[in-house]
């Protein structure tokens, strides 16, 4: 996942119509679980993405006193800090119909 494609999500939490969230599943609790699982996936993807980009700044054998401020590293950190939070990205994906989900029981039953 590239973080740039997730910028259409709001940066602040706001009230959302429960009916609209529950519309796809018919059950608000199921919808929340699906959104929460997607938010965890997004958080993990973002973590891997930033760690991968930060590896470029690691210098082996660095001593704490030798570390200096790197403008590119600071800008990269600020970029990720300013992204919408994973739960807001997941909620926006849900509302936009971009999340695919399936029930494990149905998948197991089809294999028997």
From TrEMBL:
Its EC number is 2.7.7.6. It holds the Pfam family RNA_pol_Rpb6. GO terms for molecular function: DNA binding; DNA-directed RNA polymerase activity. Transmembrane segments: none annotated. One of its GO terms (biological process) is DNA-templated transcription. GO terms for cellular component: DNA-directed RNA polymerase complex. InterPro entries: Pol_omega/Rpo6/RPB6, RPB6/omega-like_sf. It catalyses: RNA(n) + a ribonucleoside 5'-triphosphate = RNA(n+1) + diphosphate. Gene3D superfamilies: 3.90.940.10. Keywords: DNA-directed RNA polymerase, Transcription. SMART domains: RNA_pol_Rpb6. It is an enzyme of class 2 (transferase). Signal peptide: none annotated. Belongs to the RNA polymerase subunit omega family. This is DNA-directed RNA polymerase subunit omega. It comes from Schleiferia thermophila.
